[in-house]
Amino acid sequence: MTGLIFAAMDTTSNALSHTLFLLAKHPEVQEKLRLEIHEAHEQHGEIPHDELVALPYLCRETLRL
C-alpha cells in the first residue's frame, strides 16, 4: 500500500511540475488560463470543486498535454 501511495504522489507531482513548466514557457497560454480562472472567480467567488473541474481550458488542456 505504501508503494502505491508513493507512486501516485510521484506521478501527480511530475504532472504538476510539467504543467507549470509549460505555462512558464508559454505566457500567452498562461494568460488565457488566468482569464478563465478570473472569470470563474467573479461568477462564483470561491470556486467550488465542481466548477473548477468544469473549466475547459484548465482541465482539458492540462490533461491533453
From TrEMBL:
Gene Ontology CC: one annotated term: membrane
Gene3D superfamilies: Cytochrome P450 (1.10.630.10)
Subcellular location(s) of the protein: Membrane
Cofactor: heme
Keyword entries, A-Z: Heme, Iron, Membrane, Metal-binding, Monooxygenase, Oxidoreductase, Transmembrane, Transmembrane helix
Major localization listed first in the record, in broad terms: membrane
Molecular functions (GO terms): heme binding; iron ion binding; monooxygenase activity; oxidoreductase activity, acting on paired donors, with incorporation or reduction of molecular oxygen
Tagged with keyword Cell membrane: no
InterPro entries listed in its UniProt record: Cyt_P450 (IPR001128), Cyt_P450_sf (IPR036396), Cytochrome_P450_monoxygenase (IPR050121)
Keyword Transport part of the UniProt annotation: no
Domain of life: Eukaryota
Pfam family, one: p450
Pathway: Secondary metabolite biosynthesis; terpenoid biosynthesis
Family indicated by similarity: Belongs to the cytochrome P450 family.
PANTHER family per the UniProt record, alphabetical: CYTOCHROME P450 (PTHR24305), CYTOCHROME P450 12A4, MITOCHONDRIAL-RELATED (PTHR24305:SF166)
Record-given protein name: Cytochrome P450
Organism: Sphagnurus paluster
